[in-house]
Amino acid sequence: xxxxxxxxxxxxxxxxxxxxxxxxxxxxxxxxxxxxxxxxxxxxxxxxxxxxxxxxxxxxxxxxxxxxxxxxxxxxxxxxxxxxxxxxxxxxxxxxxxxxxxxxxxxxxxxxxxxxxxxxxxxxxxxxxxxxxxxxxxxxxxxxxxx
Length: 147
Ligand SMILES: [Zn+2]
Hints:
Layout: H1 9-13, H2 16-20, H3 32-48, E1 55-58, H4 63-68, E2 82-86, H5 92-101, E3 108-112, E4 116-120, E5 129-136, E6 139-144
Bound molecules: zinc ion.
Zinc ion binds at residues 58, 77, 82, 84, 118.
């Protein structure tokens, strides 16, 4: 199912972990508005990245899947309001800087371990929080801003 010009529903639900563990990661009807909002915002992201692809590595996570991948229970992924992605535009840090410079409205933008970008949106109040996730003694910690 096509959501917007460049995004399909299956990009938000596909998960190798869910497949492996046989978890049904179907999006509940009541979250479809959130998914639509996220897809529209990702079109803005894609435009800011000069039309380079936004490759979603983790989109919607049902609560069970979220727990299996070690996500916090309040994760915006479980509301269909966040995705993790990569893009041939550049490194995660370059992508984050570009989205800030392009004045994209987001709730949370996280440069995660120099491997991917987490971006979350709010239907009501985007807080423009920018963080960098790094490993410290095997534990993930979050630093303010892009470091
Ligand atoms: Zn994420």
